[in-house]
Specification:
By secondary structure, the protein is mainly α. It has a domain of 88 residues. The chain is 32% helix and 0% strand. The chain has four helices and no strands. The radius of gyration is 34 Å and the shape is globular. It starts with 85 loop residues before the first helix and ends with a helix.
Length: 209
């Protein structure tokens, strides 16, 4: 009482800035900057390989060996969890040779087309399930890369010999996917005859030719 209103004495009234109270737990309070989506690494065999469709994904439990800088230095034969004996080595090497049939010889394993690597891994793990226990198919990549890289080095040496002789370098065939499985050998039948009868006919006509 008795004091004049500020506006009547020349004072300027200033409106206070509005204060917005954000309740805890609201959308504005919990908003965070967007995070980049995680991407699944899919290298071309340098440190394993991730199949787009992996029928053995639930079984892969054998991790990569530690202190191995590259897939070439990993060995499935020395991995106790895989249980590969010395007697199995010949069988595995034979399957590996069949699996790399469609790989191009003019490039190392890590530079092969992705579908070629995937097809070779699928073929190998279909016929030998123990490498399918390896995370990121490192066991199959180890077997395949050694054979492919050896073939690549041999191809380079042969090309180096051809160039001084004036011969053109050999061209690699276009990449193709290997067969999913080896077809079973069916008995030969010729025009309704049994296989034995067809063989006898061929021998007979060959003897009178």
């Amino acid at each position: 009482m008795g004091q004049p209103y500020p506006a009547t004495t020349g004072a300027t009234s200033v409106a206070a800035a509005p204060v917005f109270v954000v309740p805890p737990g609201s959308a504005h309070a919990s908003r965070q900057p967007p995070q980049p989506a995680r991407r699944l690494g899919k290298t071309n065999g340098r440190m394993g390989f991730v199949l787009d469709i992996d029928p053995h994904a639930a079984r892969r439990s054998v991790e990569m060996p530690e202190n191995c800088p590259s897939i070439n230095r990993m060995s499935v034969f020395n991995e106790p969890a895989l249980g590969i004996s010395n007697a199995d080595k010949k069988h595995l090497r034979l399957l590996t040779s069949r699996a790399i049939e469609y790989c191009q010889k003019d490039r190392p394993f890590c530079q092969q087309a992705r579908h070629i690597i995937a097809g070779a891994i699928t073929y190998l793990e279909l016929h030998e399930p123990r490498p399918a226990l390896c995370v990121r198919s490192w066991g199959s990549c180890s077997l395949l890369s050694k054979r492919v890289n050896n073939a690549f080095e041999h191809h380079r040496r042969m090309d180096a010999k051809r160039l001084p002789a004036g011969e053109p370098p050999s061209a690699a065939p276009p990449p193709q996917a290997p067969p999913a499985q080896t077809p079973a050998l069916a008995p030969q039948v010729a025009h309704g005859y049994t296989a034995a009868l067809a063989t006898a006919r061929r021998k007979y006509f060959a003897s009178i030719a």
